[in-house]
Structures are given as structure tokens and as C-alpha cells.
Write a structure and sequence with these properties.
The complex is a heterodimer. Chain A has eight helices and eleven strands. Chain A is α/β, with parallel strands linked by helices. In chain A, the strands form two sheets. Chain A has a six-stranded parallel beta sheet. In chain A, helix 7 links the parallel strand 9 and strand 10. The termini of chain A are close together. Chain B is an all-alpha fold. Chain B has four helices and no strands. The chains are: A alpha/beta, B mainly alpha.
């Protein structure tokens, strides 16, 4: 007997996996496959400890440590835990929600313009990274923001990290579109990042909350009252009501909604269908 | 003191649990929610790590009866 566990643990309503999606997945499963949905943390151990396949939101690795049957995990997220130290097959939805995330960054940028009554023709948008989202941002922004510059380790960007300080001090709006790893975290250390920013910079974070050390970010904002931090991602999530970032009027937080517009679920289901077709043939 | 030291050692090894305080500042009196900011997912994750360490069968209801660090230390003492 094989088993699929769907992890639907999001506490924010918009991030929940829709009921219709879960029904479609269930209807497509082989008849002899057991099926369970996890909606509360207390269900995680019993549901995941013997699952063959897992589909859903990222979960603590603790719950699969003792699972010897697990063959694959399909994360309904672009931000996935590192399972590279195991033989488990891993898929995620990177790229599927790129347009949605880039659109959210654009809405943040428009709010910034409106609040400060700025002319976008006089501003330069700096995009960090050339992944799915990093490539989508210039396309989404170019109708309003004519001046866009990019930086990446890969070739084809306007800047490389050899010229990081030039990139930062010539950008009015900075949008990290980066994965979280040791290298990218290093880019945001004070000596590399904050000391090179304009005093009235607008940082739009649609990448990862953990890229920024909260105390360092708050210190920068306190020292630069014209600077703005607009973020869809925080650490932890959901961000505490009494968290320090909420105390600053230079900060706007949305609750990780960028990648979860209603129109992505059809694409996610298509990808799951293709991936699961291949995976289930293995059992 | 021995249980507190053991708790901090385990805590330092646990991934995916966010705490509002640095581990070395944690005391038995701290409330898990108000002081440490432990949410339900963090609480249950921590519980499974501890039960694995102590070699006992998990009973998640126990995790939800904890209010303070002291309750966790009592759990460690009882399961020795």
C-alpha cells in the first residue's frame, strides 16, 4: 500500500490549498493509494511518518526523519527545505508563480511612487538575480519604469557582483529576486549592502525574509528615515503582531500573498499531474 | 540545571523552530508563547525532536499541555 499525504498547513487563508485542487488530486490517484490531508500541526507525525509521497506546503524535516518509505515530495512553494542529503525526489512550483510575484513587486513599487509623489522616469529600479522572477520583473515593470538595471552572477546582466556597490548606489528601488543560501545572505551584510544604499532607497522584498537580519535592517531604517522597506516575506511567518518591523512607518508588510493569486492553481495542478504520473509508475 | 542544559543542547540542533530569544538566554520561567514566540508548528516540532531524543512514543497532546520551559524540563525528567 502506498500513501499520499497532502500538507495544507498555511495559517493565512489565501495560502491554503483550495478544496477543489485537493479533490482533483484525490480523484486522479490510483485506487489502491491511501490518501490523507494534514490541516493541523498535530497531524503531521502520523500523516508523514509512513507517507510514500507528500504534496503541499513546506514542513519541518523532523517529521520525515524516520520515514523509510518516502519517495518524493512536491512542494506547493518556491521556497523549499533542503532535502539534498537524501534520495527523496523533490519538485516545487518555482517559475509557475513568477508572474504573480513580479506583479506584486510592481504593486509595491506603485504604492511607493504614490506615497512619495515620485516620477518613475527619474528613478532606477535595480533587480538582483536572473531566475524566473528576476527575469519577469523587467518585463512587468518596463511600461512604467523606463530605467531598469540588473545584477547577477550569470552573464547577461548589466552588473556583476564585482560592481555591487555601483549597482546599489545607483538604484532607487532595489528588488532582490534571489534564493536563500550562504552566498546570497552574504550580499545583505551591512558592510556589503547598507553602507552602499541611497538614503531614500526603497527595498522591495519578494524573495525571502531571512535574507535580511532584522536588527540590521531596523538599524538602517532608523538611521535613514527616508528609506522604505516593502516586504511580502518575513521571518518568521506569519510575522508577529508585536514584531519590531510593524512598529516602523517606513515598513509595509503583506502576508506572503505574492505567489498565491487564484490563477496559479490550474498550472500547479498541471505540473503535479505530470510529475505524479512519472512518480507513481515507480511504485 | 542538567535538564535545562540538555534542553538547550537539543534545541540548538533542531531545525525549523523559530525562537524569539537566543538559546543561551532561555530560563525555566519563560513562557513558550509570550516569551519564546513558539507557535503551534514550532511546539509540535520541538516535541517530536525531544520524544525522539528520549526514545518515547509520541503523544502530541502532551506538547499542547506545556506552558513554560519548566514544563518541558519536567517532561525530560519524567521520561529519563
Amino acid at each position: 500500500m502506498t500513501k499520499l499525504a497532502i500538507v495544507n498547513l498555511a495559517t493565512l487563508p489565501h495560502a491554503k490549498i483550495p478544496t477543489e485542487f485537493i479533490q482533483s488530486v484525490e480523484e486522479s490517484l490510483p485506487e489502491d493509494m491511501e490518501f490523507t490531508v494534514v490541516e493541523r500541526p498535530a497531524q503531521l507525525f502520523s500523516a508523514l511518518s509512513d507517507a510514500t509521497w507528500i504534496l503541499g506546503h513546506p514542513f519541518p524535516k523532523t517529521f520525515i526523519k524516520r520515514n523509510k518509505r518516502l519517495k518524493g515530495v512536491f512542494f506547493v512553494s518556491s521556497q523549499t527545505p533542503d532535502l539534498s542529503d537524501s534520495d527523496i525526489l523533490v519538485q516545487d512550483i518555482k517559475g509557475l508563480n513568477a508572474r504573480s510575484v513580479a506583479q506584486h513587486a510592481r504593486e509595491f513599487a506603485l504604492k511607493f511612487l504614490e506615497k512619495h509623489e515620485l516620477d518613475p522616469k527619474n528613478l532606477t529600479v535595480g533587480v538582483m538575480g536572473q531566475g524566473h522572477i528576476g527575469e519577469m520583473i523587467p518585463e512587468i515593470f518596463k511600461d512604467i519604469f523606463p530605467n531598469i538595471q540588473t545584477i547577477s552572477r550569470a552573464s547577461g546582466a548589466d552588473f556583476t557582483y564585482d560592481d555591487y556597490s555601483d549597482f546599489l548606489n545607483s538604484s532607487d528601488i532595489i528588488i532582490p529576486a534571489l534564493e536563500l543560501n550562504a552566498q546570497t545572505k552574504e550580499l545583505f551584510r551591512p558592510e556589503n549592502f547598507y553602507k552602499n544604499l541611497k538614503e531614500d532607497v526603497c527595498i522591495i522584498n519578494i524573495a525571502r525574509g531571512e535574507l535580511f537580519i532584522e536588527s540590521e535592517l531596523i538599524s538602517f531604517l532608523n538611521q535613514n528615515p527616508k528609506a522604505t522597506y516593502l516586504t511580502d516575506v518575513t521571518y518568521p511567518e506569519p510575522y508577529p503582531e508585536d514584531g519590531p518591523l510593524r512598529q516602523s512607518d517606513q515598513v509595509v508588510i503583506t502576508n506572503h500573498i505574492a505567489g498565491f493569486r487564484n490563477d496559479i492553481w490550474g498550472d500547479v495542478l498541471d505540473k503535479w499531474s505530470k510529475v505524479s504520473d512519472q512518480w507513481f509508475k515507480m511504485t | 540545571m542538567e535538564n535545562l542544559k540538555q534542553f538547550k543542547t537539543i534545541l540548538a540542533q533542531v531545525e525549523d523552530v523559530y525562537l524569539r530569544l537566543p538559546i543561551d538566554q532561555i530560563t525555566p520561567e519563560h513562557n513558550l508563547v509570550a516569551d519564546l514566540g513558539l507557535d503551534s508548528l514550532g511546539r509540535i516540532t520541538l516535541y517530536y525532536e525531544l520524544s525522539q531524543e528520549m526514545g518515547i512514543e509520541p503523544n502530541e497532546q502532551q506538547a499542547f499541555s506545556w506552558n513554560t520551559v519548566s514544563d518541558i524540563l519536567s517532561f525530560l525528567e519524567q521520561t529519563k
